[in-house]
């Protein structure tokens, strides 16, 4: 008070309060004193906490409720679109979703196509396996019968052998397709001479060609290509076997290896029976046969060209087929 004024504060630990005192000496000598009790900071915070928590809960509830309502409103058109994927035309509820809906629709169509392909494949496999098995069973019963003439037993045994070989060939092709579907091919690529591969494979097929009096020739030059040698051998074998199988006795098969316009080309050309124009788009389908009776009689499984197409796709290559009925067929693989 020596300066004419003074202040002091006192803390009440029991009440949790502070007392602020202020004194002022007036001109007439009297002293004016003021005192005020003030809550501690944590007391003020504690008293306002329930209100803050209540506001937070209320705001959170409103936000959750609003988000659920808005989400339902946004998702309902999309759910409607999902239920119309099989329709010929699906309109997008939002312009931004056009690319998304187009992609989903494409994937949906691919899934349906794959499912149908598996279903058709299973049905075809069952049929193709049943045919030779039925023949083997029938001829085996005749062969075991005491009433079967001796001169026919040799014929029945040959038929059993022929159908058993057909069954084995079919199973091998099915296994090959399964391996191609599930195999990891990237790590097995290597650089090889395509001409040498073709020469080796044609040498192994010379006996089959000579039985039909078909002349096989190889033309071209050494051409390096990065590929899976085992699959390329399979490809060459299937294409040349087809040319021999559907060629005319005394015909010709020409295999050419060359490099042209940046492509390494393998061409297999024959002067056989040819393929009708209406069948060209389907010859690479599994179990599709242009001439069913001739294919079965010659031992074809209906999977050869399907395997060829799969091998071509693994190598990111292209395949073209040209054919004229009664003139011949030309298959070109470009890598």
Mind explaining what this structure looks like?
The chain has 335 residues and is α+β, with helices and mostly antiparallel strands. The chain has three domains: 5-39; 97-182, Helix Hairpins; 189-334, 2-Layer Sandwich (Heat Shock Protein 90), CATH 3.30.565.10. The protein has seven helices and ten strands. The protein has a five-stranded mixed sheet with strand order 5-7-8-10-9, covered by helices on one side. A three-stranded antiparallel sheet has the order 1-2-3. A hairpin with a 5-residue loop joins strand 2 and strand 3. The radius of gyration is 43 Å and the shape is elongated. The mean pLDDT is 79.
TL;DR of this structure?
The chain is α+β, with helices and mostly antiparallel strands and 335 residues long. It has helices at 41-82, 98-144, 150-182, 194-211, 229-245, 292-297, 304-314, and strands spanning 5-12, 17-25, 31-39, 190-193, 215-220, 224-227, 252-260, 263-270, 318-324, 328-334. The strands form 3 sheets. The chain has a 5-stranded mixed sheet, covered by helices on one side.
